[in-house]
Write a structure and sequence with these properties.
The protein is an alpha+beta fold. It has helices at 2-70, 77-97, 104-174, and strands at 178-188, 194-197, 205-212, 222-230, 243-246, 249-252, 255-260, 267-273, 281-289, 292-301. It has a four-stranded antiparallel β-sheet, with no helix packed on it. Strands 7-4-9-10 form a four-stranded antiparallel β-sheet, with no helix packed on it. The longest helix is centred in the middle third of the chain and has 71 residues, at 104-174. The protein is rod-shaped.
């Protein structure tokens, strides 16, 4: 009886041991699967995180390239080609990172490409900054050159203005000036003899006498003298074809002649015959020489 119980107990104990072994094995399997799933989940999370990070990195690199297009810089052909190559690489990376899953090999390859791009963009930006500095220096030099040119131009214009003023002063100083200008009215007899008159009804011509103010700057040569005669109403008596320039403007003259000037106190006379009839009132005359007003006078006829 005792032996039978021992056999039974022994059998139960074996079953219990077997169950324990099975339970331990199941627990170990579950633990292994749990750990494996957790690791796979962590690895998947890590891969997705790295993929997102790489996407962000690529976008930053693209933004860096886009900044160059906003700069007012003329890129060299080499820099343009390098930018085009970089943008092709960025497009390839974006397409690769848009895949649902990346293998570890693909991820590592993408990481290497992004690293290369980052190094390229740094070198590229260094080149752009150097180009900016060169452009800035060149612009500064050009601005300085323009300023110098402008300053030189202003000085040249000022010098030209002063020369013109000096030339005008010299010409004015060298022009003849009349003194003792006197106007006399005459009637002319049939014999040709001139009779001085004071009445307008009998006057036929005006005789203008004058001296020349001594002037060492004036040329000792022939000088053209122009006479302008105005009637009592202020109207110029002149042929419209008789034109000359004086005092910076073109005007008509009544009569002209040439005199020989030798700075020897010689007195001169100009006779002007009125093509019309004289009227009562004051007649005014102005003399011009060398492009300037020479002198003036008037006569009153009764």
């Amino acid at each position: 009886m005792s032996d039978h119980k021992d056999i039974v107990n022994k059998g139960d104990r074996n079953k219990i041991y077997f169950l324990i072994v099975v339970i331990v094995a199941l627990l170990g399997t579950n633990a292994y699967l749990y750990i494996k799933d957790d690791r796979d989940s962590q690895r998947l999370t890590s891969v997705n995180t790295e993929k997102d990070r790489l996407k962000l990195e690529v976008e930053k690199i693209e933004v860096e390239l886009d900044k160059v297009n906003t700069l007012n810089i003329s890129l060299s052909e080499k820099l343009i080609k390098e930018q085009e190559m970089a943008r092709l690489k960025i497009a390839e990376l974006k397409l690769s990172l848009q895949k649902g899953l990346l293998t570890q090999v693909e991820l590592e390859k993408a990481q290497g490409q992004v690293k290369e791009l980052r190094a390229f963009v740094k070198t590229y930006n260094d080149g752009i900054q150097r180009l900016e500095r060169e452009n800035s220096l060149l612009k500064s030099e050009m601005d300085s050159l323009k300023a110098s040119e402008s300053s030189a131009s202003r000085r040249a214009q000022e010098l030209e203005r002063r020369n013109l003023e000096l030339d005008a002063k010299v010409k004015t100083s060298a022009s003849l000036k009349a003194s003792n200008v006197h106007v006399t009215a005459y009637r002319v007899k049939s014999s040709g003899k001139n009779i001085e008159v004071t009445k307008a009804s009998t006057a036929k011509k005006l005789s203008v006498s004058f001296d020349i103010v001594p002037n060492q700057l004036a040329k000792k040569d022939y000088h053209k003298i122009y006479l302008r005669v105005f009637d009592p109403a202020g109207n110029l008596i002149a042929n419209e074809n008789n034109m000359f320039e004086a005092d910076g403007q073109e005007m008509q003259f009544s009569y002209s002649t040439s005199i020989s000037y030798n700075d020897d106190n010689t007195s001169y006379t100009m006779d002007w015959i009125n093509p019309n009839s004289f009227i009562k009132g004051t007649y005014s005359i102005i003399l011009y020489a060398d492009g300037y007003t020479m002198g003036r006078s008037s006569i009153e006829l009764r």
